[in-house]
Design a protein that fits this description.
This protein has helices spanning 46-57, 94-102, 111-122, 167-170, 173-178, 183-201, 216-219, 238-258; strands at 9-15, 19-26, 32-39, 66-70, 74-75, 78-79, 106-110, 131-137, 141-147, 150-152, 161-162, 165-166, 205-209, 228-231. It has 259 residues and is of the alpha/beta class.
Length: 259
C-alpha cells in the first residue's frame, strides 16, 4: 500500500497486546488515514515487535520521524515495565531499537499517554482546564493524566487496586471477554474503578478510550461518577494520532535547538 503524504503527515504506530496498528497522521488536524493492522507477535519480544513495526512502516511513503507507542512505562526512550509485552523489553532503549529496525528516527511513548496527548490536542479534552484523566481499556487498562492540558507522563492509574482487585486485570476488555461478563456486570466493575479514580485524583473530566469504545453504547449509560465522563473523540485511533503528534513535537524541538 502506498499513501500520499503532506508536509504535516507522519506515521503513528500503536503497539497493543493483541494488535499493532499504524496510520498516516495529519498533525495539523489529527486525521488518521490508511490504518493497517498486524497481529502482535507472541511472544512480543523486542526484536519480534520491531520487525512487525518495520513491516507496517514500509507500507507508507511518509518521510520524517515515526511515533510509536508501547504498553509500558517509557522514560527517555527506555522501557521500564512490561505488563502486556514480553519482559525482555525491560531496560531496552525502545527508541534506538525501533529506529534501527525502521531506518528512521523513532520516538517511543506510553500508549495511554499518546492517547491523552491526542485527546488534549484534538479531542474532548481540548482546552479543558484542571485535571483530566484518559483511561484506555483493551487488553489491559492504561491511563494518561493531564493538568491544564499538560501531560504528566507514565501515571499508570490502571495499576490501582479497587476492592483488592488490580484494575488492569479486573476491568480490562480481555477480562470481560474471558470471563464472559454481561455488560451490566462489567459496567458495575468499571463504575467502581472510575469512582475510585474520582475520589483519588478529583478530575474535572474522565475520557474513555481504547478498544472498548467500539461498545460505548453498551456501557456508558450504566456508569455514574461524580464528574464528567466522555468517550474519546478519536476512538481507538487516539494512540496512533498521539504517537505521531509526540514524534512531531520532539522533532520540532530538536530542529529548533539546532537552529
Amino acid at each position: 500500500m502506498s499513501t500520499e503524504t503532506g508536509t504535516n503527515a507522519l506515521v503513528g504506530v500503536d503497539v497493543g497486546g493483541s494488535g499493532i496498528k499504524a496510520a498516516l497522521v495529519d498533525r495539523s488536524s489529527g486525521e488518521a488515514k490508511g490504518r493497517i493492522r498486524l497481529e502482535t507477535p507472541q511472544p512480543a519480544t523486542p526484536d519480534a515487535v520491531a520487525d512487525t513495526v518495520a513491516t507496517l512502516v514500509r507500507e507508507f511513503d511518509a518521510t520524517g520521524p515515526i511515533g510509536c507507542t508501547l504498553p509500558a512505562v517509557v522514560s527517555n526512550g527506555v522501557v521500564r515495565t512490561a505488563t502486556h509485552i514480553d519482559r525482555g523489553w525491560i531496560g531496552v532503549n525502545g527508541a534506538e531499537l525501533l529506529s534501527r529496525a525502521t531506518g528512521r528516527h523513532c520516538v517511543v511513548v506510553n500508549d495511554a499517554d499518546a492517547a491523552g496527548v491526542a485527546e488534549a490536542r484534538f479531542g474532548v479534552a481540548r482546552g479543558r482546564p484542571g485535571v483530566v484523566i484518559v483511561i484506555t481499556v483493551g487488553t489491559g487498562v492504561g491511563s494518561a493524566l493531564l493538568t491544564g492540558g499538560v501531560l504528566v507522563p507514565n501515571s499508570e492509574l490502571g495499576h490501582m487496586y479497587v476492592e483488592e482487585h488490580l484494575a488492569d486485570a479486573w476491568v480490562s476488555d480481555s477480562t470481560r471477554q474471558r470471563e464472559d461478563l454481561s455488560w451490566k456486570h462489567w459496567a458495575g466493575r468499571f463504575e467502581r474503578y472510575l469512582q475510585r479514580l474520582q475520589e483519588t485524583m478529583w478530575p474535572e473530566l474522565i475520557v474513555i478510550g481504547g478498544g472498548i469504545v467500539k461498545f460505548a453504547d453498551k456501557f456508558i449509560d450504566r456508569v455514574n461518577v461524580d464528574c464528567e465522563v466522555r468517550i474519546a473523540a478519536l476512538g481507538n485511533l487516539a494512540g496512533i494520532v498521539g504517537a505521531a503528534v509526540v514524534a512531531g513535537d520532539v522533532d520540532r524541538a530538536v530542529t529548533t535547538d539546532r537552529s
